[in-house]
Automatic annotation (TrEMBL):
This is bis(5'-nucleosyl)-tetraphosphatase (symmetrical). It catalyses: P(1),P(4)-bis(5'-adenosyl) tetraphosphate + H2O = 2 ADP + 2 H(+). It holds the Pfam family HD. Gene3D superfamilies: Hypothetical protein af1432. Residues 18-133 form the HD domain. Keywords: Hydrolase, Iron, Metal-binding, Nucleotide-binding. It comes from Caldicellulosiruptor acetigenus (strain ATCC 700853 / DSM 12137 / I77R1B) (Caldicellulosiruptor kristjanssonii).
Length: 192
């Protein structure tokens, strides 16, 4: 499916704010891909499609996530919005015929991250947070760091997210903890 066809379908599925966010994420993902030697076409598709499931209602989200094959844990059941990544990966395959595993994983894990993330997964994780419509404390610093050192930017983004969730009394998904720890251990040379 061509990018313009994907955009047209997303306009039907997403509200305007989420569609604008998806375009911004796509544009940031392409820039990061070019900066860090990743396939820009894959980054474009993953960035554009990453939130395809964001506007689904709770039952639709749960159904798509179940069909994606993931194990839905108690944290995801409690914070149903975490399911939009795995559900989006399922919809990317069903609606757009996307079969590239790296693109599908980048969509599936763009909210929680995971241990041993691919470069594309890191790019989509960061692009989702630094696209132009995002406004939060330290976003400019994160935008700068994203083009300097991708792995450190992912850790910085996770730190911001963890603080945000903790401040609001939310649950932290273990994938984020595992991803953050893996990146820090890798930086220290303890993991290869």
């Amino acid at each position: 499916m061509k990018i313009e066809q994907i955009k047209d379908k997303l306009k039907e599925l997403l509200d305007e704010k989420r569609y604008v966010h998806s375009i911004g994420t796509m544009e940031c993902a392409v820039k990061l891909a070019e900066r860090f030697g990743e396939d820009a076409q894959k980054a474009m598709i993953a960035g554009l499609v990453h939130d395809v499931a964001k506007c689904l209602d709770k039952q639709q989200l749960l159904n798509c996530a179940l069909k994606s094959g993931i194990v839905i844990d108690n944290i995801m059941r409690s914070q149903i919005e975490l399911l939009h990544g795995p559900a989006g990966s399922y919809l990317a395959r069903q609606l757009f015929g996307i079969e590239d595993v790296d693109i599908l994983n980048a969509i599936a894990y763009h909210t929680t991250g995971r241990e041993n993330m691919s470069k594309l997964e890191k790019i989509i994780y960061v692009a989702d947070l630094i696209e132009p419509s995002r406004q939060f404390e330290h976003v400019e610093r994160l935008r700068e760091k994203s083009f300097e050192d991708l792995e450190k930017a992912v850790v910085m983004a996770m730190d911001n997210t963890l603080k945000y969730v903790i401040d609001r009394g939310g649950l932290i998904h273990p994938n984020t903890i595992y991803a953050r720890n893996w990146l820090i251990l890798r930086e220290s040379g303890e993991v290869r």
